[in-house]
Amino acid sequence: MEHVLDNPAWNALNTGNTQLANGNDQVKYFSKEVSPFFGLKDNSDDDFATLHELITHDSPVGFISPVEREISGKWKLLRYIQPLQMIFNGVADPLDETIEIITLTNEHVPQMLALTKLTNPGPFDVRTIDFGHYRGIFDGDRLVAMAGQRMHPVPYAEISAVCTHPDYLGKGYARQLLLYQVHRIRAASGIPILHVLHDNERAIKVYESLGFSTRKQMHFYILQKN
Questions:
Q1: Residue 48 confidence (pLDDT) above 70
Q2: Does pTM surpass 0.90?
Q3: What is the CA 149 to chain-centroid distance, rounded?
């Protein structure tokens, strides 16, 4: 039986992220302002053809696969990424109560967009905040670090958009935001997961120190209508 996390976007769009889902019984996708990812029930060429008909834009879209695969000729491959999929199975350290973590709202979106553009933690757009659970750390009125939740293939919840302004590195902000998300997800009876580039050794060591371990290497395909 296929593991839920082998097809995380499809399972998220059918469980924890149903309120953000577009599509039909075979193909589902997020609005491009939320996330570029889509999910296919069978990951078949027919599903790819259906997706090509359903989406009306030609912005990049993201496909996640547990194995390498050829992509239909109707799609142009823009980028191929091999991230590790990591699952939290440790004991979460307590939070540092001296660091204030703030709930981010729509009024913070311009700063969130600026921070993600600067640090490039992954796709982030004007409605990515609709996934919910975004938290940040501020220096005065300036957002200097943040992290949130993206795909929610129940019972798993993906921690995403973990980033810190370059001027504030080394203060432990990303670690605190990660721990916050881990505590929050587990309090809701979920299992925290995340994805990290396979060659990002520094980040992998941080995640391992927090209690994450690698489940498997995944394959992300960033595509565009051909």
A1: yes
A2: yes
A3: 7
